[in-house]
Automatic annotation (TrEMBL):
GO molecular function per UniProt: metal ion binding
Organism, as annotated: Paenibacillus psychroresistens
Designated name of the protein: Insulinase family protein
Superkingdom of origin: Bacteria
Pfam assignment, any one: Peptidase_M16_C
Amino acid sequence: MKGGSSLKNTTFERSSINNIRVHVLPTKQFKTFAISVYIGSPLTEETVTPIALTPHVLRRGTKAYPETKAFREKLDDLYGAGFGFDIFKRGDYQIVQFRMDIIEDRYVNESGKSLLAQAIGFLGGAITEPALEDNHFIEKYVEAEKLTVSRKIEAVINDKIRYAEERCMQEMCKNEPYRLFQLGTIEALQSLSAASLHEKYRAWLQEAPIDIYVVGNTTLAEVSEYVANAIQLKRESAATYNLRSTYHEVKQVRTVIEKLDIKQGKLNMGLRTNATYADELYSALLMYNGVLGGYPHSKLFINVREKASLAYYASSRLDGHKGILAIRSGIEMENYEKASEIIQQQLEAMRQGDITELELSQTQAMIANQLREINDSAFEMISFDYNSVLSGVERSVIELIDAIEKVDRPQITKVAQKVQLDTLYFLRDQKGD
């Protein structure tokens, strides 16, 4: 049986309120409402750090609940509603996602105002009506959260696996916005004041694309009414994303060797796939990454780690909106040449179409199962649909599963022949050459 045949097609209904896009999936599948607000901005040196700091400050209090204690107590009053945020990159954009989940009214003895209306009101207040003093952010909140973000950046520096990944991307994309880390820099944090941050925050809300998602037992009309009441922003235009694929020819592979006080080498490679989520070849691109290094049965894991015993870990990761594939591995210092050679042998095997039926079928099964699991989580359904907003190409879970199951060896080979190794980055100890 084909993987998509047992799934129900889920279709979001959409509208626009004050140049804010609203997406609603009416369903009785869940006992809670899932709410996500995505606010995206092009990655720039000037804005990446203040935007990263902003949600940390917004969670400290609102105009209605200016004290952090009262802010959190209100969530408890809403039957323990969950509230949080993430900051990440998609292509050359920095995305802030606010999340909230709240129980559906029919499961509690609630009378009066809808819990969904209260949740959207609370979230809207948290984003657009923060606690202020002297017409800017509260200074003690800003200073405390600058320290929070600094520690998060330092944690990445101290985690040498993540550090090597970030450094590889910085070197590979040194002339592109993608080089910027989504949390910004400690140096830029230090220069931000409560007043300057508030000024940048106001510009951010005016200029960035904003998408509000709700999944649960509701309607588009109901959610649109709640959003209109909760968010009073006067936005002049509806900003959109521009994540179109561009061909990037690699003229010469760059090799970067960095030395730190470490005991295990980190060998990372950055590759240009010259294909993105918006392309027809996207399903084959997913399969390429899966066969190469996405799973325990993949070529990198089997050939580099298991057979050759050259790596503690070896895998690949795809940013489908940027069209970049990152390979990472942990090796002994003296195995740099051998590991580099055998990893590149796997890339050549992919270009030659050296893919077994077992690799093909196992990868199709793994990706299809992951896609099926999306429909078990309201937030995963939201995240998947948001890909269509970013890319401008609508693609359902069922359609993608069907496409994955139809991918054959020639299609993966076609993708493989477009993939180009761009940067080889090796993080090693201070001793060797």
